[in-house]
């Protein structure tokens, strides 16, 4: 089975809320909410990929030193196995903008379950509750 490495981040604001983004129409899993991030390009380290994705998707600049690994998701979809480390980040520069037209929501960790997520993302919620609640 093909392995896919995707890197994701929980951006955390001053009120300890977490940012999630809704997958737009036309993409796989459209309408589901996810932690921002994406696939690694060839030769990229996970942190570099996150920094690039956050610039592309949200228009913010993140320093590598502000990314801390929290946990790791591993989920077998029908056609591939997804490995997805989750980082946390509390500091960034620039104004957060939905650059791909995606809906964004700032959510308390204990309310994340109210937002339908891809199956790979759901096991990432309890470590965030432990960290933030
Ligand atoms: O975001 P992208 O479509 O490039 O991600 C590739 C695949 O990885 C998605 O179709 C989805 O199955 C999975 N994925 C996920 N949770 C995420 C991001 C991606 O399950 N937060």
Automatic annotation (TrEMBL):
InterPro entries: Mutator_MutT, MutT-like, MutY_C, Nudix_hydrolase, NUDIX_hydrolase-like_dom_sf, NUDIX_hydrolase_CS, NUDIX_hydrolase_dom. It catalyses: 8-oxo-GTP + H2O = 8-oxo-GMP + diphosphate + H(+); 8-oxo-dGTP + H2O = 8-oxo-dGMP + diphosphate + H(+). Its EC number is 3.6.1.55. 8-oxo-dGTP binds at residues 23, 34-37. GO terms for biological process: DNA repair; DNA replication. Keywords: DNA damage, DNA repair, DNA replication, Hydrolase, Magnesium, Metal-binding, Mutator protein. PROSITE patterns: NUDIX (PS51462), NUDIX_BOX (PS00893). Residues 2-130 form the Nudix hydrolase domain. Mg(2+) binds at residues 37, 57. One of its GO terms (molecular function) is 8-oxo-GDP phosphatase activity. Its cofactor is Mg(2+). Belongs to the Nudix hydrolase family. NCBIfam families: mutt. PANTHER family: 8-OXO-DGTP DIPHOSPHATASE, NUDIX HYDROLASE FAMILY PROTEIN. This is 8-oxo-dGTP diphosphatase.
